[in-house]
Amino acid sequence: MRVECPENSVFDNFDVVGIIEDVIFSVSTTGIKTASQSSAYLLCPDDTWIYDSTTNRCFKAFAAKPIAGGVCTKDAPCVDVGAPYELPSSLAYTLNLQALLDAAAIGIATNVQPVDEAVFYVGISDPLVNDQYQLDDGTPLPYSTILPYFTPTNPSDDATNVFKVMTARVYLDGLGLDDDTCTSGPLLDYGSICQIQLS
After folding, report:
1. Which pLDDT tens digit goes with each residue over 115-168?
2. Are 168 and 91 spatial neighbours (Cβ–Cβ below 8 Å)?
3. Could you tell me which InterPro entries the record lists for this protein (predicted)?
């Protein structure tokens, strides 16, 4: 069976891509490559990435890249992650909030960050008014949509809107989103969920 892959998939250089019993494989002049047990990984580089079909993006947790002077580092880890694939990359954002949490869960499970800093920025914020959330591209994110994805006791900001960025973390035994500040320093160098845009 032949599966047509969109441009910029990780299988672009293979002659045949197929699925037998839910195992994705590809055949080229250099042999057979088995990619994954799930078609969700067909477009992403490997199974440490989460594919989001709503945006045609792949998400992955990356370690912090601290910058001297306490400068916010949320975008720094994402600058070059798409370069090996010749794809644009940035801090991850989507209305599919579960995909961001899934990427964070993989990052936590694989110790991308030290245990005491297993927190990852995502591309969601309420930059102007508390609880009026938006994605990094300006798309509004209704409070009723995001609320079920928060960690227990959050969001915890008030009208002063001190916490303007969003992180994904485990808090009180629950993985979820948390309104946060963007800073740097000991125990504050958080990682980021980054994205590559496939098309």
Report:
1. 878 899 999 999 999 999 999 999 999 999 999 999 998 898 889 989 999 999
2. no
3. CTDL_fold
Report H helices in the chain.
Answer: 97-109, 143-146
* Whether 91 and 118 share a structural domain: yes
**pTM of the predicted model, to two decimals?**
0.78
* CA distances to 26, 61, 167 from 118, in Å: 35, 10, 10
Q: Which residue, of 11, 27, 43, is where some domain finishes?
A: 43
Same domain membership, residue 35 and residue 79: no
Q: Judge contact between 28 and 35, C-beta under 8 A.
A: no
Among 118, 54, 63, 57, smallest CA distance to 92 is for 57
Structural domain containing residue 25: 1-43
Determine the 3-state secondary structure of 77 from DSSP.
helix
